[in-house]
Design goal:
It is a single chain. By secondary structure, the chain is mainly alpha-helical. It is built from 8 helices and 3 strands.
């Protein structure tokens, strides 16, 4: 039976999760990273946005980078470190906490953060704009988070 890169990229000892980190909360982000690797010209056209600030992924990004450095097979299957790759993904601002939102912006960049609401769900943020404005990022960064990044993600020009 032949093995896939995913099966051979990481340790297989009992009790060690396949990715060398924690088993929950990031599988989708890892799959998204595989599609945003710089190997293909089409990667520039693929725009992926992760809801809820990427869920647990931001908290695990450094651990994933460490695993990438430790396991050569991961480097063979992903020529770029996970954190570098993730900086091409988009993350919504729906984290319900200004400290977490600031950390998200610091980790992935203001250019990769979009306004999020969770509409139409009951848990939706009814006032997402004030949550971004309370960060006092200045008019240029605020415009990026409230409008321009979403337009870029949609492939539309940011008109002024």
């Amino acid at each position: 039976m032949s093995s896939t890169p995913e099966q051979t990229a990481v340790p297989t000892e009992p009790g060690v999760p396949k990715d060398g980190a924690q088993p929950q909360g990031k599988e989708g982000a890892l799959r998204a990273q595989r599609y945003t690797q710089p190997k293909e010209k089409s990667a520039e056209l693929l725009r992926i946005a992760l809801s809820h600030g990427g869920g647990a992924f931001p908290a695990l990004a450094a651990r994933l980078d460490h695993a990438w450095q430790v396991f050569p097979a991961l480097q063979e299957s992903m020529p770029e470190a996970p954190l570098a790759t993730s900086r091409r993904l988009y993350f919504d601002s729906l984290v319900y906490n200004p400290v977490l939102l600031r950390q998200q912006i610091a980790l992935f960049g203001a250019s990769q953060t979009l306004i999020g609401t969770d509409y139409p769900f009951v848990i939706l943020d009814k006032a997402p704009v004030p949550h971004i404005r309370e960060l006092e990022l200045g008019p240029e960064l605020e415009s990026m988070l409230l409008r321009d990044n979403a337009l870029r993600w949609l492939g539309l020009p940011a008109s002024r």
